[in-house]
Every structure is written in structure tokens, then in C-alpha cells.
Write a structure and sequence with these properties.
The chain is of the alpha/beta class and about 280 residues long. It is built from six helices and eleven strands. InterPro entries: MIPS (IPR052199), Myo-inos-1-P_Synthase_GAPDH (IPR013021), NAD(P)-bd_dom_sf (IPR036291).
């Protein structure tokens, strides 16, 4: 399939770098930029969905692009100072604004609050553009497993006493989350749905590479006050666990866009840690 020409409708996102293309089985193409933005386009080159897939930093490239070497980006036109964080980090809100201006759907798989912001969700709804987010739940990651264990405790009539979760990883995205932990902690708590769960700060260990290791603990009481203690060690390839969910979310957004549905997509909620209505 020939490489499509660049369209004037491409969202003008901060710090756009040279990109490359990869084919997908669904006869569409991904345009992947090193600023952490993925765009789903048709064979004609017309953009339809933009996705923010990594918590990006001006000094650290996300896992889907090469390392950036240029100067820190300046605030782009139309992006308010509130879209930027300390140390020059560009949040997903800036990319959401770019998608809105370009008239394309937006998928936020980072922990930044985007779809949870009522005013922004209302603007996407009014424009007839799908807004999907926030923070994807990996196919079989620590949040999914931990939530299933907590549900099992409730269903079997046990009393939950305490629980905690520790996550270690070595990807560049993991390092960004360690350096900017605030939104990730809240998103984890949203996914687990219990105030009795403690989520330890993420640990970045470069030698782990793409491997993610999670330690889960559940302390409960059974019949007659008898103690029940459960410890789980989960080891997964972190990028692979997110890739399929990313594709599913983008496909949902593309279908909704073609059918003229804007704003929140209820069918995407099960694939997310923090859908609209959860805490920011």
C-alpha cells in the first residue's frame, strides 16, 4: 500500500517528529509520532482518530518513537498553560485540544484526566467527536488481576482487611510515570474501586526493560474470623499487554465517528481504568 500524502487536516500537536507507517489487518494505517501520539488513518490519508499512548516528556521519548534530541517545545497556539506540567511535560490535554481543532476523535490511554473533565467531554459531544479515556487497562495486568481478586473476596463473603499493590518496570513510559506519579495513583485507585487498597509508588528499574513485575497482597477474614492471606507475583510483557487494548479502543472510536456519535463511549469503559465519572 503506498504511503499516503500528508493531509492539511493533520492535528498540529506539540513537538511533532518524523514518523513512520505500519500496516494493520483492518486495512487502515497507523501514523506514529515520537511525541506519543498515534493517528488511525484511512488508505486515502484522511485522519480519523488520534490517540495519546504515552505520558511524554520533552527529554524522554515514549516507547513508540525514537529519542528526541531537539530543544524543549514551546506552548503551541490554542493550548493553555494548564495543559503543561512541571519540567516541560506535555499532557494528553494538549493533544486532545489538537484533535478537537482538527475534527478527529481522540483516545487517551494515559492516566492524565481528559475524558473525565466534564467541560472537555461536553465540547467533544457538541462537535460530534468521540472522546475515549482515560488510562487503558492492560489485557492481563496488575489492575485487572487485583480487581478480580477483590471481587472474589466479596463474592465469597470474606471481609477485606487490607490490600496493596507494587509495580516495577523498565520502559521509558514507566520512567515517565515514576517522574509524574500523581495522575497514575488516582487512576489505579479508580480501577480497583476500593479505599482499602494501597498502591505503592511505581518503581523504575531499567534492567527490567519491557518486563513488568507486580506484587499483589490481599488480607481478609473468613468464617469465624479466620485469617486469609493471599500474595500474587505477576510478570508480563508490558507493551504487548497494552497494544491490543489500544487497537480495540481506536476501533471503537472509529466506528462511533463513522456513525456520528460524539462524546463518551460506554462500550469502552471496561477497557479503561478511569472512564468518565471516576475521580480526577
Amino acid at each position: 500500500m503506498p504511503r499516503p500524502a500528508r493531509s492539511s487536516a493533520w492535528p498540529q500537536v506539540p513537538r511533532e517528529q518524523p514518523s513512520w507507517y505500519a500496516g494493520t489487518p483492518s486495512r487502515v494505517r497507523w501514523r506514529v509520532g515520537s511525541a506519543g501520539s498515534w493517528k488511525l488513518i484511512s488508505a486515502s490519508g484522511t485522519p480519523s482518530v488520534m490517540a495519546s499512548c504515552a505520558s511524554t516528556s520533552v527529554t524522554t521519548a515514549p516507547p513508540c518513537g525514537p529519542r528526541s534530541t531537539g530543544p524543549p517545545p514551546t506552548r503551541s497556539a490554542g493550548c493553555s498553560p494548564g495543559h503543561r506540567r512541571r519540567r516541560g511535560r506535555t499532557t494528553a490535554l494538549a493533544y486532545a485540544e489538537a484533535a478537537l481543532r482538527a475534527g478527529v476523535a481522540f483516545v487517551n490511554t494515559t492516566s492524565d484526566a481528559v475524558a473525565r473533565v466534564p467541560s472537555l467531554l461536553a465540547r467533544f459531544t457538541a462537535a460530534g467527536l468521540p472522546l475515549v479515556g482515560d488510562d487503558l487497562a492492560s489485557q492481563f495486568g496488575s489492575s485487572v488481576v487485583h480487581r478480580a481478586l477483590l471481587r472474589l473476596v466479596r463474592e465469597r463473603g470474606l471481609t477485606l482487611l487490607s490490600s496493596y499493590q507494587v509495580n516495577l518496570g523498565g520502559t521509558e513510559d514507566f520512567r515517565n510515570l515514576v517522574e509524574n506519579p500523581n495522575t497514575k495513583g488516582q487512576s489505579k485507585r479508580n480501577a480497583l474501586g476500593s479505599d482499602q487498597v494501597q498502591v505503592a509508588p511505581l518503581g523504575y528499574l531499567p534492567h527490567l526493560g519491557s518486563q513488568k513485575i507486580a506484587h499483589l497482597n490481599v488480607e481478609a477474614q473468613g468464617w469465624g474470623g479466620t485469617p486469609v492471606s493471599l500474595d500474587v507475583r505477576l510478570s508480563v510483557h508490558d507493551p504487548s499487554g497494552a497494544a491490543g487494548v489500544n487497537i480495540d479502543l481506536v476501533r471503537l472510536a472509529a466506528v462511533a465517528l463513522r456513525s456520528g456519535r460524539g462524546g463518551e463511549l460506554a462500550e469502552a469503559a471496561e477497557l479503561l481504568k478511569s472512564p468518565p465519572g471516576t475521580a480526577i
